[in-house]
């Protein structure tokens, strides 16, 4: 997809952002639950997704990857491999692989790809109906920017252990994990727990109303050699992403932004790097879409020499439907009142859903988006953008050329 000069509205705002199609829906297959990572040492973008037979969770099959190489800084050109790579080692026998969650470990130069494996044809509802989690916590690693991958490591017994008896379905991500400035690796996750009334089990079958999802983090302090599980939040919080917030005194706080069924997002803070989330920020600031949708968050250094970080958040901006993916900026991320009522910009006009944000270079960002013209699962698209300067009213966009 080549460069294109976008049209402008009378207010000077860009009407349309040029995007590169990474995965396109073609019967009998579709793609969803995207995640994105940028490896600066290799100047490579890695776009992950689930390959499915249909949009149903039970028809997920394998994880796939497409690689993009940053070729020309002057022309903002990203060259994408012509086809996708099936991650054939990222699986367990008779299971489907879901929810890709990549994180890069700086010291060992190792890319971790976390995911969950669920027995073929076992649905989320079935796990809730039986009050039994059947998922497995797994990961693979790559030392060569995703060209080759290790065999699958199943952490379920060693990391979750007896807690599995208290969980119904659980999952990681989807979307990127992070490495904190301390070196700790963070994998965002959530797990359903039974929260029904004592007489609820007398029903003919358990249902979603009897179970509530609670977010948590898996973490490692030894470059991913061993992993631990943090405590779950005590408020509803489903699919989530996390970001490290640094204040003006260089103090670190881990922030979590999670999907809910309550009409608004859950935001929470951890002061011990994900071992638990002690503070829940004021609710009702970030509006949830319809029955809920995944959102992406990313912290980055503010546009000065300060150590402080700001926070970006992407999510459908319509309160009822998954349309018009908005980008929001909070310059005081420890305070939820810092979120604006309106998005800073719209990354995609029209149907849009799950997305993943990464910082490409200081002040320059990329986003992978589920989007389309008629429905949100027509394609997974990639775009690059730059935030407006503080005195600039109109956003700057990069329009990458791509070899498909």
TrEMBL record:
Residue intervals of the Sialidase domain: 44-365
Keyword set, alphabetical order: Carbohydrate metabolism, Glycosidase, Hydrolase, Lipid degradation, Lipid metabolism
Recorded family membership: Belongs to the glycosyl hydrolase 33 family.
UniProt entry tagged with the keyword 4Fe-4S: no
Name listed for the protein in its UniProt record: exo-alpha-sialidase
Domain of life: Eukaryota
A GO cellular component entry from the record: membrane
Enzyme class: hydrolase
Gene3D superfamilies recorded: 2.120.10.10
GO BP: ganglioside catabolic process; oligosaccharide catabolic process
EC number: 3.2.1.18
Catalytic activity from the UniProt record: Hydrolysis of alpha-(2->3)-, alpha-(2->6)-, alpha-(2->8)- glycosidic linkages of terminal sialic acid residues in oligosaccharides, glycoproteins, glycolipids, colominic acid and synthetic substrates
